[in-house]
């Protein structure tokens, strides 16, 4: 069947995601409101022809009917970044689009998207297929860290492989897409991370999840409780307290912090779309906030988004207590997965991010490798200019 891509309304976009069960928080309409330097559009894939009403395929989720326009079978949030002085854009679909990535003929989905974005003035398209490549259990991660021969997580034997990921990558290359070079530091991409850490919750009781925590985690949770650490939920007015800890964390962990208005805008935009889309948690002890974190929810997927803590009073273990409360709340919400987001894939002891990997592995979850981000040049001259600029950054 022929697929056509065109702009859709926010309500239609959200209804599709809700019927599907989940999607990345970067593929919902409100995420465009978080990024004022980009122009955001909701795109819809419509299946045309007599069989359009028969269904959208197993991977696309439920569809909706748009009159004579066909059946909605996929959506995507595209962010358009203008080039100075030119009516040309970099088009970016972070962790998307939300389409049937299992279909053998991916070009049927991607070609009409590229055609639309070319007409829209895009010179380059970047996307992040939500396709898992490999998984490592917490024990496998622990063994990899202890193995002197494993310099990167990818060098270690994975617990499971997703064969379709290789097929997807091959199809993308044959269609003219190229995989983005990992940027950033130690496996943290300039865009979205290829490696994340997740705690599976589907089909597990909270007691089972607790038993999966390593001994140090369980001990630290008890220690925090005994010390009187209290985890409370905050609101918009509590973001400055979060931000104070966040800037301290940025200096300690050597990253450039986002400004406070970014988080205020995120809170306003996301909670306007859904009052429970974004939560803020704060760890209190003797009248002092020691740690804070934001949590995002879309359907059955919950993310630990941003975290912050002080170096003071670490002995009362506020971070373990806060994360456990967030995991408990995610479980109560019916989440299938609690996602702790990016991890380093570098296993060398000198890597200052290795401690964060150890901390996340203590949850008893699994490290997950995604297919990464991919680029398609619609204008090779402008794409080359962009590549040079990004390399110099």
Structure, described:
This protein is of the alpha+beta class and 393 residues long. It has twelve helices and 17 strands. The protein has helices spanning 10-20, 29-34, 107-120, 138-146, 163-174, 206-212, 215-227, 239-253, 260-273, 318-332, 354-361, 380-392, and strands spanning 2-7, 39-48, 64-65, 71-82, 89-93, 122-127, 132-137, 160-161, 178-179, 195-200, 230-234, 278-285, 288-298, 301-309, 337-342, 366-370, 374-377. The strands form two sheets. Strands 8-7-16-10-15-14-13-12-11 form a nine-stranded mixed β-sheet, sandwiched between helices. Strands 1, 2, 3, 4, 5, 6, 9 and 17 form an eight-stranded mixed β-sheet that branches. It starts with a strand and ends with a helix.
What is the tally of helical segments?
A: 12
Element string (H = helix, E = strand) = EHHEEEEHEEHEHEEHHEHHEEEHEHEEH
Anisotropy-based shape: globular
Structural class: alpha+beta
Give the mean pLDDT. 91
Q: How many E-type strands?
A: 17
Q: Give the N-terminus to C-terminus distance in angstroms.
A: 43 Å
Report the helical percentage. Answer: 25-40%
- Radius of gyration over C-alpha positions, nearest whole angstrom: 21 Å
> How much β-strand is present in the residues?
25-35%
Biggest sheet layout: 9 strands, mixed
Low-confidence stretches: 51-62, 64-68, 183-189
